[in-house]
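LOG
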Amino acid sequence: AVVVGVGGVIAWIILRPKDPVLADYTGRSLTSVQQQLESQRLVGQNSPQDVVICDPTGETGLSTIEPGMVAGQSPEPGKAVEPRSTVQLLVVEDSTQVQVPDVQTGNPAFETAQQILADCSLTAQTTPRATLDITPGLVVEQAIASGETVALGTEVELFVAGELVADYKGRSLTSVQQQLESQRLNVQNSPQDVVICDPTGDTGLSTIEPGMVAGQSPEPGQAVEPRSTVQLFVVEDSTQVQVPDVQTGNPTFESAQQILTDCSLTAQSTPRATLDITPGLVVEQAIASGETVALGTEVKLAVAGESVEVPDNIVNQPLDDAKKAIENAGLIYQISESVRGASEQHVHSISPSSGTVVLRNSQITVNVGCSGSISSVAYVSCYWRYRDLLVNP
């Protein structure tokens, strides 16, 4: 009997089922783990997990996180437990928090960092950053540091090396489009209604031609995301231009003319009598600077000419003396009419009057006097003598 009893014990020891060994249940759904534990005659106890470590690139935490997923267990994987034992399952819930993974080290591509965050039930928001040290499209920095605890679904701002927008003003639309395409940027062509042209300063374009870029948005030096749109304000045939200042400082006519030409305008010179400004320099522009005109508009420029004053002491002087004084001043005289009752062969009046500033070689009208009654031989003789001068001075 004793032998039989001992044999039975030995047989039970040999034949009894082995204690189940726990597998690694992390990363699996709670439902599938519970089914497996039941088949092993074990009991799964659901315990919400407060904070989950997520690390899709390493082995320190879950590779993905979704509500209802097992994030940890106790006892640990590989342990043998008795049948009907309870296994505590740490489960991700909607209210579970997650430690933000590192998506900054090594400067991964934005798409890679975005996928890592998505695996951790987080979202990514990109903000371009200007930098010359990192290739455009790569992550420069993450706004929420790795290891920080946040709620599932939190948005993590990623600063991504952006494409730098250059200064495209003054270049042809075609060349700018080619450059932007090479930078993976899109172009929006917007006709420019009015262009500021300032070849001598920095307030506008130095030259204007149809098809030229007159402005842009964003401004030069800003960083933008790949595939962003750059708006280009383009000069067209119908574009208007603000007239530049070609009067201040009294430039030469040639300089003013070139400035207007650069702004797709034309110049017309009109001489002006002045003793204050050197001949050949611009005195005034007919269309004020800042006025808006169509491309090709003619701007009249008053330019200082060789000028003199009409001599004094002409009136009441003998005609021959008056003629010499006028000629010596660089002017031309013209006998206009005889004036009855005035001193014969003397100047009665001139136009313009003495002291007036006129252009050199201008004509001075001289009125002379004839004595006697209008029907007298003396007056008629005098009249026709000066009449002859009027025709052949």
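LOG (cont.) second protein
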Amino acid sequence: MALRKQDRGQRDGAADRMTFGPGETIDLGTVPTAPPPRGLPPGGERGARERLDRGAKALKKYQDVQMAHGTYGLVVLFEGMDASGKDEAIADALAHLDPRGCEFKHFKTMTAKEAKHDFLWRAAVTMPARGQIGIFNRSYYEQVMGERVHPERLDEQDLPPEAKGDDVWERRCAQINDFERYLTENGIHVLKFFLHVSKEEQRQRLLERIAAPETAWQFSKADIKNRALWDEYRAAFGQAMTLTNTALAPWHVIPADRPWTARAAVAAVIAERLGSFHDGYPEPSEDEAKELEEAREALESDAL
């Protein structure tokens, strides 16, 4: 279903974000991990922080309107290499959201129960209702990205022969496209971010994570193992995004080496999408207006 306003979030050529046309190859090796100087907001990091704060506050306003209507839901999912800033983007860009209107899901290794279901099941059961925002730290895309790099994980899922094969990744991506189209046609829109960080920036962030007591506990040996497969992961991400970059649910690739600029871009894109759903708060129906007037009169006559 068409949005009521132009989705200003999809702006090809914006320096702090990139989108691609459906069918266009997404080669992450050719995509910058930091916006050029001309793409930075005035004031450097301070300017980016101010822009982030404005975007986060706009999100709160648009979310309130979304909750009042209860017509559209929004899934906001984040993918990226380890240490690309997914946690921080969620914490900072979405800091002002009303928790009553949010559902959060962190996609970790599949549980035994999840592995017994189809690969989209754990996402389907956590989808937000209309009027709500679902926030996914990683997502069902792990089953066409991470598992493509580690195909042995398929053997742990007891899949039937028809759910495997050489073309399993292409078939899964096609099923994701069907799933996202189904969601959108039922009022649940999907907003997809890939936080694009360089290998050197990841190295620096992992070193900082290890050195600080407040973040050392988050470190995993898997971070180093996955880093050794950098090229394989980057290729898997690019191939999956190319196959699932649709007009209804395009990918937003965010250069993430400069974290505050990246977070500001994320907040702006989400605010633009939420703001496109409605022009303002819903007008009360005739019966609702009558009830409100009766309530006002009752409260005024009850004054002490």
